[in-house]
Amino acid sequence: MDGVSKDSLTKLEDVLSTKKRILVITGAGIPVAAGIPAFRGSGGVFKSLQKELGLSTSAQDLFDLSDKASPTRFHYLPQGIAQEGRLLRLYTKTSTI
Fold it and tell me: Which Gene Ontology molecular-function terms are recorded (predicted)?
């Protein structure tokens, strides 16, 4: 499930439920688990689109990929923490959170 076991995410949610201020740091693994390929690397979005379709990657290409993806359980976790007023900061190197 999303690259993370249901038990692991449930344990994380249990631990976080006892914390007052939470710092969230995320990276490319979050969108990859949702079906959006990473940008960098040999199998990344930029290389794949250029190679397979002969395209230069544009914003529209990225929107199309994102439109087909579904959020993972983790995508909703920071949102819930923020709504509860417990999110101290959210640092990310991805565009899906």
Answer: histone deacetylase activity, NAD-dependent; NAD+ binding
For the segment 5-45, what is each residue's pLDDT rounded down to a tens digit? 778 878 988 999 999 999 999 877 777 777 776 666 666 66
- Predicted TM-score (pTM) of the model is 0.61
Question: Angle 73-83/6-16 helices, nearest 10 degrees?
Answer: 10
Give the separation between CA 54 and CA 42, rounded to whole angstroms.
Answer: 15
Q: What is the DSSP letter of 92?
A: E
Q: Write down the pLDDT at residue 88.
A: 97
- Using a 10 angstrom Cβ sphere, with 0-12 exposed, 13-18 middle and 19 or more buried, the burial of residue 30 is buried
Q: Are strands 87-92 and 22-26 parallel, antiparallel or unpaired?
A: parallel
Distances (CA, A) of 58 to 23, 44, 50, 74: 32, 14, 10, 27
